[in-house]
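Materials and Methods. Structural model of LysR family transcriptional regulator. The 300-residue sequence of LysR family transcriptional regulator from Methyloceanibacter methanicus was retrieved and submitted for structure prediction as follows.
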Amino acid sequence: MNWKAISFDWNQVRAFLATAEEGSFSGGARVLGLTQPTLGRQVAALEQDLGVLLFERFGRSLELTPSGLELLEHVRVMGDAAHRVSLAASGQSQTIEGVVRVTATNVFAVYLLPPVIEHLHEIAPKLEIDIVASNELRDRRREADIAIRHVRPVEPDLVARLVNESDGSLYASQRYLKRYGRPRSPADLTGHYFVGSSNQQEMVNYLTRLGISPARENFRFGTDCALVMWEMARQGLGMCLMATTVAARTPGMEPVFPDLAPMTFPTWLVAHRELYTSRRIRLVYDVLAEFLSNGGDAPA
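The predicted structure was written out as tokens:
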């Protein structure tokens, strides 16, 4: 490692990260237990050491510059690593206990979360993980400590991090394609069927983003449960929209138009501000962040 190339102080980096996540110097100072002038000096020193402007100041509000946004992605990884080092050094991960409730869509809960739950049990065996499989935004009423969402929350008491931009596409089972044939193009949907949500217009909107314009007669099967929708498609009832990470974990499912560019959708990891004071919630949050940032691959 080229140690001489590391030209910053960790306390300065921590001050930048807290300010960026809280959205203000006062918020960053509060969560770090510093005075606002001290935190401001640390951020200014980091800007000077790196030779870049990290924040634009508009009155009392702050906005990250392009350099700040780029740095934030790397600094968050450092922050997560520092937290895990602290836990490992003190042996705290083995003593963290209690219930942490995580909500995610039923598809994510079934196909993606089991490996990360297993990993959490290995590093913190006294933790109790309760998965709330639902498409509802349940963390609003504090029915969950952590939520995995595809829309950014607007509630001021929530901490949200964009952890991934996921791909999605139109899939069909090998059984369906053998029976009905593969459409030659997105315009060639005569005689084909979709399995979608009960909100048909919502699915039409997603298909339009892929350049697909279905007709009314293409829709025959719908459900308000994404897991049921995926299973119906797996058994050959029709074509279905799904995240690439989930499709890759489902044998027998193929992209209908493999050369078509996928649509993208965000994945947000959301928690209440207790994240900063609860060791068990912070541990689960950090592990989930790493897991989702890696596209759903189990942590090492």
